[in-house]
Amino acid sequence: MRYRHELKFIISELLATQIEFNIKNLMKLDCNHTEAFYTVRSLYFDDMYDSCLNELVSGTDNRYKYRIRLYNGETTTIHLERKSKSHEMTLKEVDDISRDEVNQILDGAMPYGSSDIRKCLTRDYYSKYMKPVCIVEYDRTAYTEDIGNVRITFDRNVRGTYKTGEFLDKEINQSQVMPKGKLILEVKYDEFLPSYVRNAINYDVLRRQSVSKYGLVRQYAI
Predict the structure, then answer these.
(1) Whole-angstrom Cα distance, residue 191 to residue 3?
(2) Rounded Cα distance, 202 and 9, in Å
(3) What residues does 151 pair with on adjacent strands?
(4) For the residues of 2-26, what is the DSSP string, one character each?
């Protein structure tokens, strides 16, 4: 595992259409696609002091957050993740977690696990009272390129709720947390971004922003 560049931009649907037209013949859709997009749902954790949220707002370096993630509402494969940020680079650690274990967490218990991420979450659970605080969901279209290990994602209909107990439900009532006609473009890569990808996404005219879907839900969800 290593840290990666992760750049975020809030863009219009018109610009997204232009960028996607430019890259669709240069990159391939990622393996999660069965249709034009797939739905990502994450259960985010924070401690009794809202440290993750406060560090996000203040731009603290060397921070991390935990989440549980599933795709398209399916609970056969669920991931426990820890995402760390250091010097504007990100690192994601992943471990599988079962539906029963997620239910234990939603009921206020922390299931035992031997992986590093589980040990760290268990430590923070007991020392910082780290617990689920919100659900974040969005519709993602993702393209990948092997050279540079590039991943470009378009995240639409960003929504969420504080009703964490509904995480495993098929359908959830949630609040939209972004202006109509806006979405989040993310550009992730290892050491370098190939020039043909850089040109295709109009990188030099994009305005990088510090935007967090978790932060948006914590701010705007009901």
Answers:
(1) 9
(2) 12
(3) 144, 188
(4) --EEEEEEEEEHHHHHHHHHHHTTT
Buried b (16+ CB within 10 A) or exposed e, 22-35: bbeebbeeeeeeee
Task: Tell me the C-alpha distance between 102 and 125, whole Å.
Answer: 14
Mean pLDDT by 10 residues, the chain (222 residues): 92 97 95 90 97 94 96 96 94 97 96 94 96 98 97 98 97 96 97 96 90 97 87
